[in-house]
Amino acid sequence: MSKYLSRHLRHQPERIGIALDANGWVTVAELMQAAAGHGFPFTRAELDHVVAVNDKRRFTIDGPRIRANQGHTVEVDLELPRAEPPAYLYHGTVAARLTAIRAEGLRPMDRHHVHLSPDRETATRVGARRGRPIVLCVDTRAMHGAGHVFFVSANGVWLTDGVPPEYLRLPGT
Question: Looking at the domain that runs over 88-169, which CATH code has it been given?
């Protein structure tokens, strides 16, 4: 169910006929009706359970509305305030991506921002989704000092527009 919600609240709301507002919200009733109409019915109790126990806290319910906390490929403004990051944050990846990362740094690709984790353990879990994980350390203190902007989402994921290679500590460096 979490994957279904992510697909439609972050990437393809139109696929089931819902429209996110400018800030990524849709009513729970509209989401449930659309999901049921597309062969994926669920109860409000099931939805509340998935939101409450999701290990990455991907979603927020606020009264009658729900949205994904970050990771959108559709245009939304999550209205996240700027935040001063800790000295270091982490990014989980796999070896196949290291050549491009060394050359270009971390880019958001289809998403709005690069996602950074507050600790190595979380970054390891993120990287492990695509194979054997490699954890990169990001010198966010230096980045922030150089004028790069950071945000932190409701679920503790740190976001920035990109990470130039000079702020990355790659394995073996």
Answer: 3.20.170.30
